Amino acid sequence: MKKLLMKALFALIVIQLFVPISMIIGKYNILGTGEEFKFRVYPVDPYDPFRGRYVSLNVMRGISGNGKYGVIAVDEDGFASIVSVTDERPDFGHYVTSMERGRFTLPIDRYYMDEKFALRAERLTQQREGGTEAYVTVRVKNGNLVVSGLFIDGVAIEDIIRNEK
User: Fold this and answer.
1) Same structural domain for residues 58 and 98?
2) Are residues 157 and 132 in the same domain?
3) pLDDT category, 43, cuts 50, 70, 90?
4) Number of domains forming the structure of the chain
5) pTM of the model
6) Residue 153 has pLDDT above 80, yes or no
7) Which domain holds residue 70?
8) 68-105 per-position pLDDT tens digit
9) How far is CA 40 from each of CA 47, 59, 87, 99, rounded to the nearest angstrom?
10) φ and ψ at 72, to 5 degrees?
């Protein structure tokens, strides 16, 4: 009985480790092999005692509607937007799968960064002038999306903060 209990405990530990590790590997796979897109954003930097510092992103999404899949198109300036929403998985082109049921929402709402940069990033994003362009780069693969960077006027926000010192 004791051997069986130890085997069950070992199996439970392996399963508990497997799930988060497979999720992390999946995200890194998307970052390494996914197609890159740029979405225009209006960043704001809130603080959450449970999540820490992150930049909240208001994405210029394009079209919205009911459906699970958002089809991505790139405009002449190189920026992506959702051009149609459907319940059927597209056979061609790039698409993003919505995490919400019924209504499509683009799963880009925050960008996590080193806390030592977060306060300066907040000031930077609030001081943006009308001609300043902010966007996030995302990697998309098989409908899954991972945010890979936040840029202001084509420069990564972390680089802007480092160079100001």
Assistant:
1) yes
2) yes
3) low
4) 2
5) 0.73
6) yes
7) 35-164
8) 888 999 999 899 988 888 888 888 889 998 877 767 88
9) 22, 6, 25, 20
10) -95, 135
